[in-house]
Amino acid sequence: MKIFPKTFLYTLALLVLIALLANGLIYTLMPTVYTKQKQADLDAQADLLAQELENAKREDIVGLMGSSAALGQTNIVVKIGEDKYALIVWSNDSESDGVVTTYVTVTSNTVSEETNSSASTFTATDSVRSNSLTFPGGSTSLDQGRFYSPAQTINALRSFTMEGESGTLTLAMTLAPVDEAVGVILSLLPISILLCVVIAIVFSLLYARAITRPIKAISDETRNMTLLERDAQCKIQSKDEFGELAANVNRLYKNLLSTIDSLETELKKVAAAEKEKNDFLRAASHELKTPATAVSVIMDNMILGIGKYKNYDEWLPRCKELVDSLSDKLRDILDASRLEVISEPYVTESVETLFSEILEPYLIIARARGLSLYIDWSASFPVTAPPELLRKALSNIFSNAVQYTAPEGKFSVYCKGRSLIAENECVPITEDQIPRLFEPFYRPDVSRSRETGGNGLGLYIVETILRRLALDYSFVPMSSPEGMRFTINF
Fold first, then answer.
1. 86 lies in a domain?
2. What Cα–Cα distance (Å) separates residue 379 from each residue in 351, 421, 474, 476, 490?
3. Which range marks the domain in which residue 167 is found?
4. Phi (first) and psi of residue 114, to 5 degrees
5. How distant is the alpha carbon of residue 270 from its chain centre?
6. Does 82 reside within a domain?
7. Cβ atoms < 10 Å from Cβ of 115
8. Shortest CA distance to 366 belongs to which of 400, 328, 332?
9. Which is nearest to 458 in space by CA: 432, 482, 422?
10. What is the pLDDT of residues 408-422, one digit of tens each?
11. Residues 34, 36, 38, 41: is their CA dihedral positive or negative?
12. pLDDT tens figures, 27-57
C-alpha cells in the first residue's frame, strides 16, 4: 500500500477512535462527575444550615429551612426532640403564565396532620402563599417517597444541638435532571459521532496530503536521478526534516555526479595510458626489430661466407655495435616502462641542490663542444618532489639541450619565480612538430637520427615523469635569439 492511503487510513482510524472515546467518556462519566459535584454542594449546604441551626431558636427553624431551600432545589427534614420539620420542593406545572412556580411546604409533627395548624407554604418569590398544608397531587400527609425515589436522590445527614437539645438534619436533592441530560446526550450521540467522523475524514485527507506531498516530490526527483539527469534536484520548501532530507539527497546526488565525472576522467586517462602503452610497445618492437634483423642477416651471411661478409674482422665488430645499440635501447625501453610504477618518497630541497649535481656532466660536455654557458641559481626556490624521478627528467632535458645546441651557441639554465628554465640556441622546431616530440621514438629530421645517438625516448620520459608529478611544463621556440626553451612550473 502506498504511503498516501496508508497515512489517510491510520490518521482516520486514530481520529475516529478518539472521537468515540471522547463521546463515550462524556456519556459514561458525566452522570458520575455531576453527581459528585452536586453531592459536594449539598454537603456544603448541609454544613452551613447545621451551623445556623445551632445558633438559632425554635421559631427560626422554618425561616432558616426556607432560606436554605432557596439556595437550590433541596428537600429538608429537621428533627429536634419530638418535633419534626419537613420542607418539600416541587414544581407546579398548572401555572398558565409559562413560569414554573416552586412551592416550599413546612410542617411540624407537634400538630396533627388533619388540622395542619402550623403548616406554611412558600414560593420562590413569596414569603407565605397559604396556611394550608397541601402536597403535590392533593395529598395532606408528609410522605417523601411520593416526591423522589432514593435511587434518584443524594442525601446529606448532619447532627446539631439547639438550646441544649440534639437534632438531626437531612437534606435530599433529586437527580432527575441528570437522567434527562444523559438522555439528551444519548439522542445526540449518533449526530456527534457522524460529525466527528466527517471532520476526521477531511482532516485525515488534508494531513495525509500534507505529509505525502514532499515525500512524493522527493521520490519523483530521485527517479530522475536514477536516470542520471544532470538537472535533477529536490526542491527545498521547508526547514523541517523533509527539507533536510531533500538537501541531503541533493548533496548525495551532487557527490555521485562528481564521482562519476572523476571515474570517467580516470577511465579516459587509463584508456589513454593503455593506448600510449600499446603505441609504445609497437614503436619499441619496431625499433628493436631493425637492429636485431640487421644482426641476424649479417651473422647468416658470415656463416654462409657470402661476399664481403667473409671478412670476419670487419663485420664482427659491426655486429657487436648493433648488439650494444640493441642493449642500450632495451635498457631505455625498460626504464621508460617502469616510470609509472616507481615508488619514491618526496623530499623538500632547493632547486640548486637538486639539479646542480645532475647538471655538472652536461656542463663539461658543453665546454668541450665550445658552447657558451649561462647558469644562474640566484632565484633558487624550495621544491617538494621525489628527487630521483625529477633528476631523471631534468637529465633528459639537459642532455637534449646540450646535444642539439648549435656550434658556439649558448646553453642557459636559470630560475624565474617558481619556474626552472633551460634554453639552448638552435634551429627552432616548428609548432606542428613539437607535440610529436613527446611521442616515443619520434625523430623530426636527420639531425635527430639514430646516427646522432638519440633513440627518441628522451622527451617521452620527461613528459611521463612530469605528468605523474602533476607539474605543468612548456616547450616553445624562441625568436631572439633563435632556439628552444623548456620551462617547468613548480
1. yes
2. 9, 11, 20, 22, 13
3. 56-174
4. -70, -40
5. 36
6. yes
7. 9
8. 400
9. 422
10. 899 999 999 999 999
11. negative
12. 777 778 878 888 898 899 899 989 988 888 8
Distance (Å, whole) CA 165 – CA 82:
10
Could you say which of 156, 174, 192 is where a domain stops?
Answer: 174
User: Does the pLDDT at position 445 exceed 60?
Assistant: no
- Specify the residue for cell string 539527497: 249
pLDDT at 301: 84
Burial (Cβ within 10 Å: 0-12, 13-18, ≥19) of residue 106: buried
Between strands 410-416 and 372-376, the pairing is parallel
CB 465 within 8 A of CB 392: yes
pLDDT at 381: 93
Q: What is the CATH number of the domain that holds 374?
A: 3.30.565.10
Contact 44, 24 (CB under 8 A): no
pLDDT value for 287: 66
- d(C-alpha 161, C-alpha 272), whole Å: 118
Spatial neighbors of 385 by CB under 8 A, at least 6 apart, are 346, 347, 354, 469, 471, 490
Residues 6+ apart with CB under 8 A from 205: 8
Q: How far, in Å, CA of 191 to CA of 194, rounded?
A: 5
Residues 6+ apart with CB under 8 A from 262: none
Three-class SS state of 454: coil
Residue matched to cell numbers 621508460: 336
The alpha helices in 57-175, defined as continuous H runs, are: 61-70
Which pLDDT score is estimated for 280?
67
pLDDT of residue 132: 35
The helix (run of H) or strand (run of E) holding residue 270 is helix 241-304
Closest CA to 249 of 225, 231, 228: 225
Residue ending a domain, among 153, 174, 195, is 174
- Identify the bridge partners of residue 123 per DSSP, sorted by sequence position: 103
Measured CA to CA, the distance from residue 430 to residue 476 in angstroms comes to 9
All 3 cell numbers of residue 5? 492511503
Cα–Cα distances in angstroms (integers) from residue 260 to residues 253, 269, 400, in the given order: 10, 14, 41
- Of 85, 90, 78, nearest to 147 by C-alpha is 90
pLDDT at 130: 31
What sections of 55-137 are H helices per DSSP?
61-70
Q: Is residue 239 part of a domain?
A: no
Antiparallel, parallel or unpaired: β 101-108 and 83-92: antiparallel
- Alpha-carbon torsion angle 470, 472, 473, 476, nearest 10: 150
- Specify the number of domains making up the chain: 2
How far apart CA 289 and CA 283 sit, in angstroms, is 10
Angle at 444 between CA 441 and CA 448, to 5 degrees: 75
Task: Report the DSSP beta bridge partners of residue 416.
Answer: 419
The answer to the question of residue 22 being in a domain is: no
Q: Using the structure block, give the residue that is written with the C-alpha cell 412558600.
A: 122
